[in-house]
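TA notes, week 10

Several of you asked for a full example with nothing omitted. So below is the full record: structure tokens for the whole chain, then the designed sequence directly under it. When grading your own attempts, check the secondary structure regions first.
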């Protein structure tokens, strides 16, 4: 693995801000567009979700459950090739009243697709007891 450049870290943080804003607007198809065509979610306690259409449906279901806002915090980024990076971070998910409904940690494998960084693999788990 290679140390990340500030540019890659900045780009990932900018895309994470778009992720947060898109989620806050309730735009599930916009969420899906942040992932590669072969993107995959690996949610805890659930089957893998692959492809942009399925990813959009997944995020719509999450929003329908009362999650209104997500906050992402990048802890570290490892540059693993010319067009790939791995991000470790933490998240908080909130409802419309700003109550924290879930918090935990995540790992995202980022891939450049058509010159833009996109989420290729997205796995997370909650700090809350199930």
């Amino acid at each position: 693995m290679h140390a990340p450049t500030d540019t890659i870290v900045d780009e990932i943080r900018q895309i994470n801000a778009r992720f947060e804003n898109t989620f806050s607007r309730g735009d599930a198809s916009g969420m899906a567009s942040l992932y590669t065509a072969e993107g995959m979610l690996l949610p805890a306690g659930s089957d893998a979700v692959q492809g942009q259409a399925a990813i959009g449906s997944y995020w719509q279901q999450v929003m329908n459950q009362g999650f209104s806002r997500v906050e992402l915090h990048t802890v570290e980024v490892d540059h693993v090739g010319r067009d790939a990076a791995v991000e470790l971070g933490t998240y908080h998910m909130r409802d419309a009243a700003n109550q924290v409904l879930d918090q935990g940690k995540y790992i995202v494998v980022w891939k450049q697709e058509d010159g833009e960084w996109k989420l290729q693999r997205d796995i997370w788990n909650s700090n809350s007891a199930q």
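The chain has one domain: 6-125. Use that as a sanity check on your answer.
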